[in-house]
Amino acid sequence: MMVSTSSILLSLVVLVTAHCYPSTAFVVSPGRSSTASSSAAFTTKYTQQFASTSVETDTPEILPEFSSAEAYLEYLETVSQLPKGFATGTADGTFISVEAPGLGNLKIRGTIIQLTDGPTESWAACFTSNKFPGAPIKVGRKRLASGGPLQALVINNKVSNVCSGGDGEADAELVCQAVADALKLESASLVLPSSTGVIGWRLPAKELAQDVVPKAVLNMQSESVLNAAKAIMTTDRYPKVRSKTLSNGARIVGIAKGAGMIEPNMATMLSYILTDATIPKAKLQAMLSSAVDQTYNCLSIDGDESTSDTVVSVASNQIEGDVTDEFEEALLQVCTLLGRHIVNSPLFKCAVSGNDPNTGRLAAAIGSYMGKYMPDADVSQLSLSLGDRCIFSNGKFVLEGDEVEKALSGHMKDAEYGDSTDYPPHQKCVEIGVDFGTSVGETSVVVLGSDLTKEYVVINADYRS
């Protein structure tokens, strides 16, 4: 979430939304401003806010445009260098669901992230506040509360291990023990589990422990985090990696997955942020909590909060030097680039998907919000803009003429990804400015979300199979 003094940019960014094609940006300002910020102005402010060291192996604030999925993945490989002291390994397996055996053999993927030079005390985590947390969340909370060290993470997709008929925590611990055995760690308590996928199914712990984990360990490598970014995906259209290099050479590399069930009260999706900087545990937890609150807590796709939301940051302490302030800024940047927040109007988000500038739906969504949370605000001071065009001012719409309709629709279409795109061809977004006027004070915020597409419905209609 990026804050300026004049406007709020709420953006539906495809960075963390797999099946939501165009990016949409909303600019909402309690203080009076003219129109929505342009992409160029947004980029300039973004660059000014995050001015720490950049090298060729860092992801820029705005990614380049890509002509194919291959080009995107080739680029991502160049910015996916693992920090010192980390290795990752992935492997596939199969299982038959106890709850739905008729579906036959289903694929499941496991990912292991290891600290190669021994356990670290410097790790932090934020978990979902959903009242039905998954078993891995319960295990993770216990690990965090104990204050013990960490040496590995294990993540599986396909089954979230939430409210299953079996002993979910025991299943998670069985997988952790398998990782500890395969990596020759002293204890399973050094392993943090995460699961994502179907809710209500029992975790195929034996298949993971006996097949997937050993294969993943054989595939361990210390070059790139991209394999892990790919492996943790579920309904995501493409992997997400963001990285930053500090002035002393230390790196921060983050990966994330998530395309649905995204509107958290804390944390979001699954995200893992690795660094070789030397950061004390207490400071790392404070900085991660702050960064999560400003970024991942500002993201919404469909209004559903997941039961498995997890954000973990781990420091291998391989590179010495006090870079705490610089690290905090870079951590915020990586989290900012991995996720954000937006208002939840399914009607308007469907309109965005169809490049339909249905301004009435936008006004209805904002009016609903103001009625609930700003009942005393002066609506006559409200102004709305779409792209660089004012569409509502002084209590009425400003939409006369076919040229206005054409321009608004064109602005939406320019941010479109396309029906079959499995990579982010550009970083453009639909920008919507909301200025509440001077009656509600001076403040601003950046929020991100996405549209809702036909493919989103299709994928989630058949999610389990």
From TrEMBL:
EC top class named in words: transferase
Reactions catalysed, as given in the entry: L-glutamate + acetyl-CoA = N-acetyl-L-glutamate + CoA + H(+); N(2)-acetyl-L-ornithine + L-glutamate = N-acetyl-L-glutamate + L-ornithine
Signal sequence segment: 1-18
Record's subcellular location: Mitochondrion matrix
Subunit relationships: Heterodimer of an alpha and a beta chain.
Family affiliation: Belongs to the ArgJ family.
Protein's name according to its UniProt entry: Arginine biosynthesis bifunctional protein ArgJ, mitochondrial
Taxonomic source organism: Nitzschia inconspicua
